[in-house]
Amino acid sequence: MDHSGGRCEMDANLEIYRNVAAFSGIPIERLKLLAYLSKRVYYRAGEFLFHHGDIDDRAYLILSGKAQVIRELSDHSVFLHEFTEGDFFGGLALLSDIKRRFSIKAITDLECLTINRESFQKLLLQFPEIAIKMLDPMIKRMVQMEEEFLKAKTNQCLYG
């Protein structure tokens, strides 16, 4: 806790979640629990948060820095997107034990707020409406990244 400024980390986390679109529709009482269960994680520039195919049970919210979304293929990588402060990603890992569909690499030093599946699912058992509020922005982001990947792959193909 940060007693010097009179605000603890949970209060800071709560304020952050309140300003992120994926969480804006969630009532404050539920956000307080989410803020309490979240942890801060730091990555150095060039470090991968996870790789395509990894099993990772966390979702990430960027507090500072930038990260690249990359699809690693057998002979090259395709840049899909850049995440910056306030971007939330990896939310599907909170709902299901799935392999990552892309890699995330820190471009700069990166600070993230993370929540793991076990903590999130405990919250969902008490407040199932949270999942519904989060699904819409998560699905829209997935569709956007898939479209960017397909466009990149289509541009690489030669038609006869």
From TrEMBL:
Gene Ontology CC entries for this record: cAMP-dependent protein kinase complex; cytosol
InterPro entries registered for this protein in UniProt: cAMP-dep_PK_reg_su-like (IPR050503), cNMP-bd_dom (IPR000595), cNMP-bd_dom_sf (IPR018490), RmlC-like_jellyroll (IPR014710)
Span of domain Cyclic nucleotide-binding: 22-141
UniProt xrefs under Gene3D superfamilies: Jelly Rolls
An example molecular function term from Gene Ontology annotations: cAMP-dependent protein kinase inhibitor activity
Domain of life: Bacteria
PANTHER family tied to this protein: CAMP-DEPENDENT PROTEIN KINASE REGULATORY CHAIN, CAMP-DEPENDENT PROTEIN KINASE TYPE I REGULATORY SUBUNIT-RELATED
Protein name, entry field: Cyclic nucleotide-binding domain-containing protein
